[in-house]
Specification:
This protein is an alpha/beta fold. It has a five-stranded parallel sheet with strand order 3-2-1-4-5, with helices on both faces. Helix 1 packs across helix 3 and helix 4 packs parallel to helix 5.
Length: 137
């Protein structure tokens, strides 16, 4: 499965801690992230991360294009609604792309844990058919 990880600057430590906690599950999948988030995940977990450009330099667009192609199977986007920085990725762009291409998306730790535990149990295996064009939806 292709898992997208993206985090606003103020939530980078949270996504690092999340990836450390669920390294066992994440290690069985391909992780994609914007540049800085991906680098930080790699540093704390030693997992390989496919890195896009930093979000402010076009990485958000690359990330969203992968979602729009249906090539992302799950997205975790930790953002801080009370501290929006214009340099941070736009949450609505990413979430809307996921909604339009039925891709599960989590924007907080509680939902992210539900998705990652479901991924570990195989609950998201239907995404494989969705990505290959099988009519499982």
């Amino acid at each position: 499965m292709n898992i997208g990880m993206i985090a606003h600057n103020s939530k980078r430590t949270l996504i690092e801690d999340f990836c450390i906690a669920y390294k066992g599950i994440l290690s069985k999948h391909d992780i994609y992230a914007t540049g800085t988030t991906g680098r930080r995940i790699e540093e704390v977990t030693s997992l390989h991360v496919h890195k896009f450009l930093p979000a402010s330099l076009g990485g958000e667009k690359q990330f969203t294009e992968m979602i729009q192609r249906g090539a992302m199977d799950m997205v975790i986007f930790f953002y801080n609604p009370s501290m929006i920085d214009p340099k941070d990725p736009d949450v609505m762009t990413v979430v809307s792309a996921c909604d339009q291409n039925p891709i599960p998306v989590a924007t907080n730790i509680a939902t992210a844990e539900m998705l990652i535990l479901g991924l570990g149990r195989g609950d998201l295996d239907w995404r494989i058919g969705a990505r290959t064009g099988d009519d499982l939806l």
